[in-house]
Specification:
Number of strands: 9
Number of domains: 2
CATH architecture of the largest domain: Alpha-Beta Barrel
Bound molecules: zinc ion
CATH topology of the largest domain: TIM Barrel
Distance between the termini: 32 Å
Strand content: 5-15%
Length: 312
């Protein structure tokens, strides 16, 4: 059963992004050169426009075949890594991300008086695909095993960092970033935002924007308020320094259990899953233990993990 689903997802996850980018690249290259294929005296790009189109078709086919081979290789690596890291099941492969990101609006009941002009607050990304997003908060535990495990399993995730916890080891999070993880904003000191003035919130949020940009080289687009608590000032402050969206979460993962926001205690397409950088001192296991637990839940329910920043 699992294998069948794996294969189906794998096929479905097949094409779009990479090949489209490649194909777009080919088209752009052809346009930029006034279609070099037409001028080529000999070889496969031979003399006529029609032949140029034919060659373009072949290039696209080759790009598709190459991408398909890459996907196969990625899934083979995932099988090996799942065994090595003792996952109950091999994680499912996510479908290619959409060409255009979905329009994200406030979760009903989560709006402020600021209305739609402020960054949206949401717990689920609109999609029909059986995907969820993994987000890891704070930054207390800096376990090298997590980086290795996620790299080998090829599971995407996003980090939401508080400076007072990560500043003891920026290089750890730089390594994480180097492995494709986006570093997002979770304030300087993890304070309760609604208890602060607008100016204090700006300090907590915007100074963390500046800090992350300084040590990581990239200004965050996403912000998550500590404890998920915010008011209109929070969203105004965040917007004032470049925050585009405020993803909260629909479920929270621990090494030994899940906690759910929704009444049905289940996952739904596009749900954002929260967890934390914590170790044995804070909860009942290691970071790899937590990943094993949450991936078992996600895979058992037939979901794959996709990359939040591909959708938001
Ligand atoms: Zn937090």
């Amino acid at each position: 059963m699992q294998l069948v689903r794996q294969k189906e997802d794998f096929r479905r996850g097949g094409m779009p992004k990479a090949p489209l980018v490649l194909v777009a690249g080919l088209v752009v290259a052809a346009l930029a050169s006034g279609c070099a294929a037409e001028d080529a005296p000999t070889g496969r790009h031979g003399g006529k426009a029609a032949a140029g189109a034919q060659a373009y078709g072949n290039d696209a086919a080759r790009a598709l075949a190459g991408y398909s081979a890459q996907l196969k290789e990625a899934q083979a690596a995932r099988v090996t890594a799942a065994k090595k890291w003792k996952l109950a099941k091999v994680p499912l492969a996510a479908p290619a991300p959409p060409a255009a990101k979905p329009k994200i609006t406030n979760r009903p009941g989560f709006e402020t008086d600021g209305g739609d002009s402020l960054p949206p607050v949401f717990t689920t990304v609109p999609t029909k695909d059986r995907i969820v997003f993994l987000t890891i908060d704070d930054g207390a535990e800096k376990d090298p095993a997590l980086l290795q495990m996620m790299r080998e399993l090829r599971i995407p995730y996003s980090a939401f960092l508080s400076d007072y916890l990560v500043r003891t080891d920026y290089p750890y999070f730089k390594r994480m970033q180097g492995l494709g993880v986006t570093l997002n904003n979770h304030t300087l000191n993890h304070r309760y935002m609604p208890g602060l003035s607008y100016e204090e919130q700006r300090h907590e949020i915007c100074d963390q924007q500046d800090k992350i940009e300084k040590w990581a080289g990239k200004r965050p687009r996403l912000f998550r308020p500590p404890y998920g608590n915010y008011n209109e000032d929070t969203l105004r402050a965040a917007q004032s320094c470049g925050v585009k969206a405020v993803p909260l979460w629909a479920a929270e993962a621990f090494p030994d259990h899940m906690e759910w926001r929704e009444w049905d205690r289940d996952l739904h397409p596009g749900d954002i899953v929260l967890t934390h950088f914590r170790g044995r001192g804070d909860w009942k296991g290691t970071m790899p233990d937590m990943i094993r637990q949450v991936m078992k839940v996600i895979t058992d329910k037939g979901y794959a993990v996709a990359r939040l920043e591909d959708y938001v």
